[in-house]
Amino acid sequence: xxxxxxxxxxxxxxxxxxxxxxLLADGWTVVAHAHHEGDDVPPGAIRVVADxxxxxxxxxxxxxxxxxxxxRLLVNNAARFAPDTLGSFDSAELDAHMAVNLRAPxxxxxxxxxxHESGDALVINLLDAKLSAPNPDFLSxxxxxxxxxxxxxxxxxxxxxxxxxxxxxxxxxxxxSPGQDEDNYRSMHEFNPLxxxxxxxxxxxxxxxxxxxxxxTGEILTIDGxxxxxxxxxxxxxxxxxxxxxxxxxx
Length: 251
Description:
Radius of gyration: 18 Å
Largest sheet: 7 strands, parallel
Strand order of the largest sheet: 3-2-1-4-5-6-7
Shape: globular
Low-confidence stretches: 242-251
Structural class: alpha/beta
């Protein structure tokens, strides 16, 4: 296998950690980004700490890849996820979401492009399945992910001629969200037509698929068990799986 490096943001916990562990198992050299000094990363990964809200985050993260094999994969996984909606809108919260969820992936993608010389490279942006059937909950978060989805296509068009592919993965609820109680999580995890809860391993498998498909760029893989077909009117954690009033006529 060709020596190659992958950078994964938010690799200390949750889905990002599973992605980093999967890539390590596949033989990648992994630079694992963490937000806090006290965060650990999967054994075998190269740890780098950076605040994605800072404009210098990309240069700090890519410095950790100096003297490593070429960076062939960038997974923009880390994200800010805080509640707001119309009626409780805070412009500072929108700015914070845009800095982490959009500006940081743009800066990191630009950093990869600036050092890329030849061969296949891939950027994967972690999006959200709710983009296929939007609802107004988590307004700033949703706007930032919609912007990142737009950037995914724009970057794919701009970088294809250089052999750099850009794709997205849009998963539904996988792990319990902040503020979501365990009972609600368990009842909603499999609340989709396939009645199969989405797991972090499903996202890791999608990363593997995209990495192994060098003719694919500009595509977004939605992993939601078909939940988008129902056109939910609220974010899934605010719904009851027992009441049809919470589901649109598309159910």
